[in-house]
Write a structure and sequence with these properties.
Layout (H helix, E strand, L loop, with lengths): L2 E4 L1 E2 L12 E2 L1 H13 L3 E2 L2 H7 L8 E8 L3 H12 L4 E5 L14 H5 L16 H9 L3 E5 L6 E11 L8 H6 L21 E7 L6 E2 L2 H13 L6 H12 L5 E2 L2 H23 L5 E2 L8 H10 L3 E2 L7 H4 L6 E2 L2 E3 L3 E3 L4 E3 L5 H9 L3 H21 L1
Parallel strand pairs: 1-5, 1-15, 2-3, 4-5, 5-6, 6-7, 12-13, 13-14
Antiparallel strand pairs: 8-9, 10-11, 16-17
Helix pairs in contact: 1-3, 1-12, 7-8, 9-10, 12-13
Amino acid sequence: MPVLMFHSIGCENENWYRNWLSVSLDHFENFCKYLVKNNFETLFLDEWLESKKTSTSKKQVVITFDDGYLDNWVYAYPILKKYDLKGTIFVNPEFIDPSEENRYNLDDVWNKKIDRSQLAPLGFLNWSELQRMESTGVMDVQSHSMSHNFYFHSDQIKDIYNGQKQYDWMAWNNKPERKPYYTAESQQQYVPNGSPIFDFGRALGLRRYFPDKELVNYAIDMYSCNADNKNKTAQINKLNEKLKIYPGTYESDEEMEKRYRYELFESKRILEEKLNKKISYLCWPGGGYNQLSVDLSIEAGYKASTFSAKNNDFVKRNLGDYKSIRRFAMTSFISTPIKNHYIENPNFLVNLFKYHLGKNFNKNLYRIQKLKILILDRIFK
C-alpha cells in the first residue's frame, strides 16, 4: 500500500522561496478524482498499521502532509472532504500559528461567503483549524517533532550569510517566535550579514556545534567593513585562522539527549493535550534521525515513523513492534540541478502516482520527461 508525501497545496505560484514544495490545485483535485474513480480507499495511519497484519485485495492509499502549512486547511481539507477522502498532517508545535479563529478556506468560496481572491494560503495552521479538521474525520494530526530546525554540526565553514534564501532556517534559530510567519514575511533582518554558515543538518540526526560568539562577531564586523564582499573564499580563510583561537564547542551527550527528548516527547505531549487524542506516529523532519533519536522515539511511545530510503540502516534493525513508514513524494515539479520546473500537464500527479505504483509505462514517461528538461536546461542555461 503506497503512503504518499505531500507538503503544501495550491501555493506553487506564491511569492515563497519553497513554493516548489507545493502541489497545484489542478493537480491535486485531478488526483483526488482519480482515486475516487478507481475505487481507492484512503486510510489513516492506525488503519494502515492494522492493515499490515492481514492481506487485502482492496486498493488502498495513505495521504500525508508534512509541516502543517495553512494551505492544508485552505485548500487540501475542503478538497479531500469534497471527495470523501482523508489524510494525515504531521505538524511541529513550534510552527503553530497563535491566531485563534478559523481562517477562510475553499468551503467559504463554494458557499459564496467570500471571493476566491480573498483566500490567503501562506502561513501555518492554528490549533482551532487542526481541531476542526480532526473533528470532521477528514484529517488526522500526528507529530513532526517539535522544531523542524537545522543546526550546525561541525566547525567547517561552508558559506557566509548575506541574505541567501536557502538559509531561511537561520532566522528560525535566531527568532523562533517568528517561525509561524516565515512563509509570508522576509526574515533576513533576523540574521546579520556576514554570519558564518558551518556544516549543518537536521536537528534529530546530529550533535550540535556552537560557534564561539567572538568568532561570529568578528565575521559580522569583517563583512560590514569589507568593500569586496564577493570574495567569500578569502573571508572563510580568515575565519578558519580565527577558529584556532575561537574553536567553538559541541553539545555533550547529556545536552544532546535532553534536546532530542524535547523534540520527541514534548511535541507528543503538546499535541495530545491540545487535540485530546493519542499521538502514535512520527515523521522525521527531512529524514534526519540517528540511533539515539530512534531509540528515544520508541521510548516516547510512537508506534511507527517515516524512515528515509536514503538512510535505511534502522529499517533493517529488529525494532520489534515499531514500524517503518516508507513514503513516496508527490510534487508538481521536476527538479534539476538548475531549477525546479513546474509541469503544466493536469494529469502529472496521477502519472506520478502510477509511477510509484510501479507502472512501467508511467516510469518511462516520467524519465523521458525529466530527460527532456535536463537537455533543455543544458541548452538554455
